[in-house]
Structures are given as structure tokens and as C-alpha cells.
């Protein structure tokens, strides 16, 4: 067996299952599950119809690169959303089966195991707390994850200057998540400029995870995307930059498994080669449904409105007792707990039958701290009234502490 498999930690939800073992929730209260970032808003009917109307495509093997129509639809959406020239659909866009598998596979393409062999091996920088795929991808590519703490005292920014140049020289890949999971922080232009300058100096590739980019609360101020930042800073070729996006959160279709990567044509050429062997071609019916989804914004605006209404009502209730705020974007509340996050989550389930995720499960100890400790992640994905009821129960629970 691959010995690197032994380096993988249990997924956060496996840890949660173990934490809850033996807990009997309050029998008079129905479960409200706010632990997993799975959208529960209805899938738009027109996407369902597009999927059903194109099932004849199942008789054909799809190409790894996807249809030209899908790549053009994605390129057109990128131009409209990010205010940049449409990327070359033939060389700068690759459809993928959701951002998760692409984020994992990307490290297998980028990491050169022969480099830095005498200096502890290749390194991959990722935020901390983080989406665990980044860590697993690094480890199974033979690289060492470097955890960059994002903390309240600096507004959850990625502090690039906190890593020494000796570390940067060994970095081959940087994962960023903007809007961030779990904090909701959006990187600004200055942060992108500093990261691009480091990439130019040291030659590493940037993987920008932007799967939460379409959930925000001011229609006039969409989150800054990496492609926009690159274009504004004179990097129209997107050198050493690849952005990852998905329909899952934007269009409430997590089961569709549809997204894209876009950016540096030279990097994507190698990624496409890897995927040709990996078997990452997208189902033709899914491609047709994806074209429909990327071509419509009305359902996305409606989706944002539903999240904004929940955050507007839920956040003040929870903030009475837990330090939290409406995020820049995304659908998570990142709330500080008055007791250990694991104890808080376990007792909240026992007393109030509300499921949240301990923040420490989303982070690793780095520089002497676990930056997720004493936080919980609350995913406001359930229907509006369920989220409100959960907030009331959390409020009542905090009064008992």
C-alpha cells in the first residue's frame, strides 16, 4: 500500500461521529444539522430539466476536455462575472467533476518530487483552518503541508510575511480559499499582489479555491476573484495561477459534481494530460445541465437573497453569546465558544439536538496553537425557519453555561 495513506487524518465528520458516540440528544427536539456545508436550497427546475432532456448523451464516451459548448459557456461566465476578457476556451478552461476532485488531482500534477529532495522535500502552503482536501492532496503527492494560521487579531488574513524565505524557496504549490472556509474572509488586491510577487520570485503555482464566490450579501460588491486580481495587476496570462469554481453552492446542485478550473494555459495543459489518465471526464448530461446553469444568473441572485435573509436574522441571535459576525461571503458563521469547541458541540447536541462542527477539527497545530480551537463552524444551509430555531436553541444553551 502507498505508505503516505498512513499520514492522512480522519475527515472532520468522522471525528464528529466519534465525538458524538454515546450521546443521546434531547428526545423532544428534532435534529437540526448545521455541521456540513451541503446546500439545502431547492435545485432550480430548469437545471433538472436540462439534465433529464440530455440523458441520450449517456450512450457516448465524453472527452476529458469537455464539449466546446460547455467550455464556451464557462469562459463567457468568467468574463461576465469577473470583468476580464473571456479566457481561451480551448486552452485556459477545463471542466471538472466538482472542485473537490480537481483540487486534489491538481497537486498530483504540480508537485515535482525530485526537487528539494535534500531539504526536506517539496512544500505546499495552505490556510489553517482549511479544507482538508488541501492537506491530503499534498501528502499523497509526496509533499509537506505548511499551515499558515489565519487568526482574529489580523482579521483572518493570510500573513505571507510570517513564512521565512527559506521555506518559500521550497514551496511548489499554494492553496488559497477566497471566500475562505470557514471564516468567510475574502482576499483583497494587496494580498493577491504580495502572493503573485512571491510566486514570481520562487516559481510556485497558486490554486485558488473560489467555490463560495457566488454567496455574498451586497449585489453591488461581489467578492474579488483571483482572475480579476491578476488582470488588474497586469497578469493577463494568469501565469502560475489556476482558479477553481463549482456549481454546487452557486446553483444548489452538489450532487451534479460540476465545476471548472481556469487560468494559466501552460499549467492547464499538464493538468489535462494528468486528467486524461485519471479518467476525469464529465457525464454528457451533466455537461448540458451545467451549460444551462452557467448561463443563468436569476436563480443565483435568488439563492443569495435566501442566504442574506438567514444571516440577517440568525447572526444577531447567536452573537448575543458567541463572538461572531456576518462573513465577507460564504454560508458559514465562525463563532468563538466560551468552552472547548468539542465540549460545546457535544453538549449542544445532547441538550438541544443541534449539530455544529468543532473548529479544531478543521485545523492543525502550527506555531504552538490550533487556530480553530474554541470556535465552531455553523453552516446556515438548512431552511430559514430551521436556522432560526437552531439559533434560538444555541442561545438558550449558552444561557445554561
Written overview of the protein:
The chain has a seven-stranded mixed β-sheet, sandwiched between helices. Strands 9-12-11 form a three-stranded antiparallel β-sheet. Strands 1-10 form a two-stranded parallel sheet. The termini are far apart. About 50% of the residues are buried. The chain folds into two domains: about 5-40 and about 300-400, Aspartate Aminotransferase, domain 1 (Alpha-Beta Complex), CATH 3.90.1150.10; about 60-295, Aspartate Aminotransferase, domain 2, CATH 3.40.640.10. Helix 3 (about 70-80) runs parallel beside helix 11. It is an alpha/beta fold. The radius of gyration is 21 Å and the shape is globular. It is built from 14 helices and twelve strands.
Brief sketch in words of this structure:
α2 (45-53) packs antiparallel against α11 (284-294), α3 (68-82) packs parallel to α11 (284-294) and α4 (99-110) runs parallel beside α5.
Amino acid at each position: 500500500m502507498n505508505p503516505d495513506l498512513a499520514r492522512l487524518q480522519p475527515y472532520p465528520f468522522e471525528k464528529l461521529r466519534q465525538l458524538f458516540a454515546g450521546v443521546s440528544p434531547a428526545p423532544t427536539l428534532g435534529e437540526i444539522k448545521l455541521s456540513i456545508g451541503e446546500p439545502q436550497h431547492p435545485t432550480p427546475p430548469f437545471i433538472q430539466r436540462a439534465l433529464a432532456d440530455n440523458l441520450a448523451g449517456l450512450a457516448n464516451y465524453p472527452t476529458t476536455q469537455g464539449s466546446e459548448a460547455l467550455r464556451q459557456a464557462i469562459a463567457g461566465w468568467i468574463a461576465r462575472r469577473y470583468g476580464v476578457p473571456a479566457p481561451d476556451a480551448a486552452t485556459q478552461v477545463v471542466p471538472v467533476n466538482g472542485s473537490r476532485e480537481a483540487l486534489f488531482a491538481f497537486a498530483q500534477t504540480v508537485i515535482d518530487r525530485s526537487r528539494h529532495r535534500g531539504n526536506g522535500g517539496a512544500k505546499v502552503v495552505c490556510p489553517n483552518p482549511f479544507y482538508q482536501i488541501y492537506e491530503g492532496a499534498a501528502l499523497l503527492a509526496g509533499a509537506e503541508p505548511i499551515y499558515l494560521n489565519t487568526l482574529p487579531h489580523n482579521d483572518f488574513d493570510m500573513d505571507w510575511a510570517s513564512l521565512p524565505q527559506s521555506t518559500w524557496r521550497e514551496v511548489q504549490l499554494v492553496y488559497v480559499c477566497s471566500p475562505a472556509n470557514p471564516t468567510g474572509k475574502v482576499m483583497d488586491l494587496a494580498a493577491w499582489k504580495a502572493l503573485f510577487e512571491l510566486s514570481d520570485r520562487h516559481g510556485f503555482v497558486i490554486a485558488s479555491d473560489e467555490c463560495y464566490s457566488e454567496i455574498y450579501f451586497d449585489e453591488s460588491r461581489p467578492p474579488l476573484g483571483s482572475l480579476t486580481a491578476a488582470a488588474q495587476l497586469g497578469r493577463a496570462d494568469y501565469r502560475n495561477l489556476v482558479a477553481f469554481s463549482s456549481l454546487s453552492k452557486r446553483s444548489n446542485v452538489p450532487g451534479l459534481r460540476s465545476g471548472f478550473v481556469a487560468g494559466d494555459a501552460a499549467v492547464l495543459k499538464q493538468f489535462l494530460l494528468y486528467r486524461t489518465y485519471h479518467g476525469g471526464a464529465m457525464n454528457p448530461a451533466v455537461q448540458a445541465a451545467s451549460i444551462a446553469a452557467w448561463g443563468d444568473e436569476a436563480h443565483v441572485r435568488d439563492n443569495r437573497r435566501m442566504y442574506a435573509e438567514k444571516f440577517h436574522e440568525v447572526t444577531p441571535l447567536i452573537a448575543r453569546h458567541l463572538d461572531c459576525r456576518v462573513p465577507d461571503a460564504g454560508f458559514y458563521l465562525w463563532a468563538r465558544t466560551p468552552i472547548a469547541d468539542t465540549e460545546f458541540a457535544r453538549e449542544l447536541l445532547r441538550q438541544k439536538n443541534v449539530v455544529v462542527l468543532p473548529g479544531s477539527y478543521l485545523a492543525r497545530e502550527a506555531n504552538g496553537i490550533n487556530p480553530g480551537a474554541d470556535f465552531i463552524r455553523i453552516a446556515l444551509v438548512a431552511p430559514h425557519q430551521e436556522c432560526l430555531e437552531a439559533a434560538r436553541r444555541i442561545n438558550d444553551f449558552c444561557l445554561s453555561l
